[in-house]
Amino acid sequence: MVKKRVVVIGGGAAGLMAAGQAAEKGAEVILLEKMKRPGRKICISGKGRCNLTNSASVPDFIEHFGGNGRFLRQAFSRFFAPELVEFFQEKGLGVSLERGGRYFPTSGKAPDILKVFQAWLDSLDITIKTNSPVDRIIFNDDRIEGVKVGKKIIKADAVIIATGGTSYPATGSTGDGYALAKAAGHSIVPVRPALVPLEIVGGVESLLAGLEIRNCEVRLLVDGKQKRRLFGEFHFLKTSISGPVILTLSGEAVDALRVEKKVEIILDLKPALSEQKLDSRLIRDFEKRHKEVFSEVLRGLLPAALIPLCLQQTNIPAELPAGQISKKERKRLLQWLKQQRMEVSGYRSFREAIVTAGGVKLGEVNPKTMESKLVAGLYVAGEVLDLNGNTGGYNLQAAFSTGWLAGRDAASDTTS
To answer: What is the pLDDT of residue 169?
Structure first.
């Protein structure tokens, strides 16, 4: 009995999982990684902590991927968050559940994830070839024959494309898989940054760089119509705005900007209070502290870093006694606190995007196996697919699940 040979292109989350699963199913596995070492993106994910997955149910998980999430139902039915957590725990890695249903390695160190994979793949005698970019996939009569790496041809019974997207290109994710899949006949949905910081008009973000606002509400408007409303954290960076709520909204914002629609963000700094209740509070504060200057009263309402901006944009004098603030000025402050409007002018590049939107068209891939519907023996897994979810461990779980399915199916038969 001759082992089936499976070639995995890409040593990220999907590729490492696919390689190990194929080997456990009895295949001879060769993992090809273009960088000096595999798993570089894993090591920087989650700010170096690696948010592995989430405790959300399958239906909730799927919702976090939008309309394309249904494609993942088959993969999640076979290998989902509980199985992933058990997978790591069985290999000696502690996994802890944190707020928001997010799972992280207990050590808090993303490289520990890579160490688990390296030990696992070594135990399975998988051949890992680094500095080995694949030039093309070789197939004949719609059947895989192998891959070409430089001048060398590597024969294979199955090939798995798991090259990732184009986010964080310094880690090796430069979109190579799209070209390989396209050459095999696949359609590529236009790729664009997702979970990416947004740029705004006015430049106030540079004045507030480093400020993180918790418990605020953010609304996304496209051509004046509200599209989504989220509650959570909002961050100011040197050149953009970010934070969990902005990253989650960024996909719709990017798509709207690409077709030249007007995009705005409405920030509510006091979402727990209606405008009426907030106005009543302002009246009480101004009456109680009528001798104090306006800037001092603001300290009880805002983070210190926001006060200069508030003074500038409301045009209320900092030294004006609170008792002398007019009704018109109070209403201006109220609107500023509840409806701070920012026009979005653009978005950051793939270098700052957490994931990639777009990719290999899902209708051309079998969701039960991850095998191409166009070329027998060709599989596609991970971020190279037209799948992108919200922050919170969703994208990594999709990579692990699709990689698991692709690896096992690619090795499912033997040749004699």
So the answer is: 85
